[in-house]
Amino acid sequence: MPDTEIAYVGSRTSVLRDGRGSGLEVFEILADGRWLPRQSVGMDNPSFMILSPGGTQLYVAHGDGNQISALELDPATGRIDYRDTVDAGGVNPVHLALSPDRHFLLVANHNSGTVASIRILPDDSLGAVTGLLSFKGETGPHRRDQNSSKPHQVVFDATGRYALVPDKGLDSVFTISMDADGSLTWHQERTVRLREMSGPRHLVFSPSNRFVYSVEEFLSTVTAYSWDADSGTLSPLQSLTALPDTVTGDSRGAEIAVSPDGNHVYVSNRSGPGDHTPGGDFPDTIGTYDVDPATGRLGNGRWTETHGIRPRFFCLDTDGSALLVAHERGHSIAAHPLDPATGTPGPPVFRAATGSPVAILRHHIPVMAGADDSALPSRDRAGAADRSTTL
């Protein structure tokens, strides 16, 4: 029997974010592409998540808070059950990464300007904070959103020797490294300063580990870099607009990804001046750029309308055939099939209606005879019974 495919969807739940989500949603993905709701677990702002090293748990960052939760996965059904919550080592955890040795969880804490490392215990549960790194530098000129350091992500290169941290508040990309005991080091001499008020938000390494691409939130630009893995040196090559030339008003960059073959880079654009607005005057889009494999430089962009509101997050489908887009203000998940010849996303196929989605994680589980969809009633952090809904 084929494996069962599950999608975990995190959402905004707080009044501060005008959240309409209920927490963490679990969907079963059928062979025909339909998403069926299987579970809804109440929790505060599950804004990013990754699998534990053993694949037995989900680690979930609670946006705008200061905690990381570990959720047990049922190996037969993919349903989740609360296990434990630990301190994030800062405020507003927005991104999680596993260390190359898989012994530590790294957390980008957006509002406190820190990256923390948390020990992963042999049973995949989370221990104490082992390293804490504060980022310093000249803040950008945006009066509201660049009043301090605001790291938004931490990404290791393929060698595992270095990680890059885009800092939206300092208009910089930092190079860090981690020791075997979980302590972190900030390499100030390798910091890359971008244009003022650019707001680097997310970045991605090419499959070859030779190039890096970042999306800048405030200026809506895409930057290409060369990457020297031996010395940990990041060198900017090129900056392009992330927007079609018909967009004359406010817009913000959000997510970035590279195709598995390294031939295409994708970015998402959110029309409007910021998260406090319900949307903008122009269509939200996914930009596609062809990559020169020799130089890493990008060609001119082409854009696909998402027909949703605020594509804050997207990711490639597990087989690389589509982009899965979470529309935070459109309250939906859509799939954009990718043209096999050009890599360009096609029109969206809507997969699920769900409140304020901001993160998607796909997971395969083996089919087991006798698995019961009603098994394992999940419990939230306060111990309340699972609240399941049909979307």
Describe the structure.
- The chain has no helices and 29 strands.
- It has strands at 4-11, 23-29, 35-42, 46-51, 57-62, 67-73, 80-87, 93-98, 104-109, 114-120, 126-134, 155-156, 163-167, 172-178, 184-186, 192-193, 200-205, 211-216, 221-228, 233-241, 251-258, 264-271, 285-290, 302-305, 311-316, 322-327, 332-337, 349-353, 357-365.
- The strands form 7 sheets. Strands 12, 13, 14, 15 and 16 form a 5-stranded antiparallel β-sheet that branches.
- The two termini are 27 Å apart.
- Proportion of residues in extended strands: over 45%
The helix-strand sequence is: EEEEEEEEEEEEEEEEEEEEEEEEEEEEE
Low-confidence stretches: 369-391
Shape: globular
Task: Name the helicity range.
Answer: under 10%
Number of helices: 0
- Overall mean pLDDT stands at 93
Report on the biggest sheet. 5 strands, antiparallel
Provide the gyration radius in Å. 20 Å
The total of beta strands comes to 29
SS-based structural class? mainly beta
Distance between the termini: 27 Å
